[in-house]
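User: Teach me something about this protein's shape.
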Amino acid sequence: MTTSPFVLPPHYLVTPEPTSNALLSGSVSSTHSFYLAALEAALARGITLVQLRARTLDAQAYRRLATDVLRCCHRHGARLLLNAAPELALSLHADGVHLTSTRLMACTQRPLPADFLVSAACHDETQIRHATQLGVDLLTVSPVLPTKTHSNAIPLGWSRFSTLVALTSVPVYALGGMRIESLAEAQQAGARGIAAIRAFWGEDVIS
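Assistant: First, the predicted structure itself:
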């Protein structure tokens, strides 16, 4: 395991899902513009680390949206991680990749070179230990609290979250039910910071 050379911020924005593939069609370009405007507003409020989560889009639509989001992030000095295949992050010159827990457990080695950020989604001890062995740069551990995004998931709670954080030296972000005021409690539990959709994007997210 290597120590990450990146200085990580306390806030990690996970974007909401775009409405559909129609988001990127010419007939609804205003919706595309609204999505980017919402991102611009979040970046203007000081967000410097973003994960593009758009799993409902097909490959072509995702590439188009990712290209625009990347341009927007870099204009504000923010780094963008793609919740997609590592090869796509390389081809689009993104700043890194976020591995779902399924992608994480399929990896036998770190999927990108050291000059790219690698984030991984973890929910239990096995995933955290595997991510640590791979040498990822940051983890999200979730769901800490009840969340609308995964309403059927059983929350970990802060005590369980703290126990999981203690298993790794990799910076951890608390995810699930986070609000701006959750940062202090998350850091007291050992987190580097918090990851969220609504807290950083706004309550009127695209859904």
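Now, about its shape. The two ends are 38 Å apart (CA to CA). The chain has eight helices and eight strands. If you'd like, I can walk through any region in more detail.
User: That's plenty for now, thanks!
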